């Protein structure tokens, strides 16, 4: 199963690189597939790529569902 996780864009760099926050973890990802992403946008991240820009409400709902998954219960 593949899972794309919502992340908040914190900053953008040259070369379509974004620094994002994924549930408190900071990562550098590619925005080649979402060149319109801006700081403070939420994007779905899969395999190091932002694959879609999503609404903040949808992102937060998805994060709550992910936090309820047994695999994450010990982390959060």
UniProtKB/TrEMBL annotation:
Any Gene Ontology biological process: protein maturation
Residues annotated as signal peptide: none
Superkingdom of the organism of origin: Bacteria
Entries under Pfam families matching the protein: HupF_HypC (PF01455)
Gene Ontology molecular functions: carbon dioxide binding; iron ion binding
Family: Belongs to the HupF/HypC family.
Protein name: HypC/HybG/HupF family hydrogenase formation chaperone
Organism for this UniProt entry: Phoenicibacter congonensis
Taxon lineage: Bacteria, Bacillati, Actinomycetota, Coriobacteriia, Eggerthellales
């Amino acid at each position: 199963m593949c899972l794309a996780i919502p992340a908040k864009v914190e900053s953008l760099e040259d070369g379509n690189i974004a620094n994002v926050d994924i549930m408190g973890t900071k990562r550098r990802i590619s925005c080649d597939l979402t060149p319109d992403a801006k700081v403070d946008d939420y994007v779905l991240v899969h395999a190091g790529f932002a694959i879609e820009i999503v609404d903040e409400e949808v992102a937060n709902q998805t994060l709550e569902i992910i936090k309820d998954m047994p695999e994450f219960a010990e982390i959060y």
